[in-house]
Specification:
Length: 136
């Protein structure tokens, strides 16, 4: 896993098993194969994700959420699940809830996802790393 990244996007089902890392830095030519819309999604979610309110344990916990989106690119609240093996720690639950709230709040009007690529973004795995959000 790439450290220093806020979100990793797995584009499902069209790229099943493939994982695209979205670096914490601004987009650059060094990032190849990354759709512009994936970078835009990463920035939109990061802007809404408040990691400062997390406990120290939760800030050190990385979680992956499977997110389903409707045709208007809004996250489906019932389609956001924590991808983890049991049992889930309280810190993981706290990080999950915080990330879920950010996805829903920022996506209420829909994310800038292209309708033509809906097969790629209809369901995605997003990995949230609160430690990467700390300003250095």
């Amino acid at each position: 896993m790439l450290r220093g990244a806020v979100l990793f996007l797995s584009l499902l089902p069209a790229l099943a098993g493939a994982q695209i890392a979205v670096p914490n830095a601004a987009p650059s030519a060094a990032v190849t194969g990354l759709p512009d819309w994936a970078t835009a999604l990463r920035h939109a979610v990061a802007a809404c994700w408040n990691t400062g309110a997390l406990s120290p344990e939760a800030r050190a916990t990385v979680v992956t959420l499977r997110v389903g989106f409707d045709a208007e690119a809004r996250p489906l609240p019932d389609g956001i699940t924590l991808r983890a093996g049991a049992p889930v720690s309280p810190a993981a639950r706290e990080t999950y809830e915080s990330a879920r709230r950010a996805l829903i709040r920022c996506g209420a009007a829909g994310y800038p996802l292209p309708p033509a690529d809906r097969a790629l973004w209809q369901v995605m795995d997003l990995t949230f790393d609160p430690a990467a959000m700390v300003l250095r």
